[in-house]
Amino acid sequence: MWAGFVAYLGVLAWAPPLGRRTIWAAIVLLLVLFACLPPLLSHDVYSYVDYARLGVLHGLDPYVHPPSSAPGDPAFAHVTWTETTSAYGPLFTVATYPLAWLPVGAAVYVLKAASAAAVLGVAVLVARLAPGRGLDPTRAAAFVALNPLVLVHVVGGPHNDSIAVLLMTLGIAAVLSAREGSGAAALIAAGATKVTAAIVLPFALLGAKLRPRFLLGGFGAAALLTLIAYLAFDWSWLHAFTLAGENQGRTSHMSIPITTARLTGLDPDATRLAFGLLFVALIAYLLTWTARGNDWLRASAWAITALLLATAWLLPWYLLWPLPAAALSRDRALKALLLALTAYQLGARIPL
Fold this sequence. Notes:
Elements: H1 2-13, H2 15-18, H3 20-36, H4 44-57, H5 90-96, H6 104-129, H7 137-145, H8 148-155, H9 161-176, H10 180-193, H11 201-207, H12 211-233, H13 239-246, H14 256-264, H15 268-291, H16 296-310, H17 323-327, H18 332-345
Helix pairs in contact: 1-7, 3-6, 3-7, 6-7, 6-9, 9-10, 10-12, 11-16, 14-15, 15-16
């Protein structure tokens, strides 16, 4: 991991001399390599497959019934959270249902391929947007796709954060291209995949040139996705958002609030509360700053990064979330902060 991080820093530092072909060849080669490896350091992908099999093969709603409801299913033997119902958005759950007809191993590799393709898609979008932001496109693409946490955890894992972030980046690209309606729809779809993407919505609304068109596209997409979710799961899918909130009641050893409490001897709950209040204050400031006509994309990147710094449940694959917006932010301090956070998370979730 450390060797990969040093190489990553080298590519970022010398991107122009290395050349466009070399960097894109490295991106494609490494994405394919990590997609072909067995699942790395996490069994969440088996939960994705198990929830799909619960719904299709066992007739059980994955937002009501946990994996333990069908202990004889081949996917169940690899599931970590056996008593937890799905915490994922209804769009992602519906999209995984066809995988239930595949053998478990094949379904896992379909998800790994989808994750690699999604990260590649994010890198391509970032590279296409970078010149319009006055940035080097190859360096911007490398900043996202060659991050070792992205390769090892997001693709090697794999995790559905890649799909949510691809939809989020499509939304950002559409808003930057004055296609406000489709941009809002893509951001809503990202939130229906993983709720974290919703943090970008208010900033994109404030930055949209035609806000009525943005609102119309957002409400239309939300209505359509709500109908699809209701037909598939009744109203039980709303429980996923409750579970996502409950995750903030958990703690991970290397989250910033818990590390701060451990190093200072402060009460962990009080430290978490303090970080939460600071996060709310920063979001309020960033929204005000954006409403005054400042760069909404830069504010979005800081908002997502602040969420990672404030949450007590920080996992290394979450680092993908701010990378596309940060790569386009024209903010060196933010990029340096994310590189430091990447270095800090290199050892997270690796068994001792």
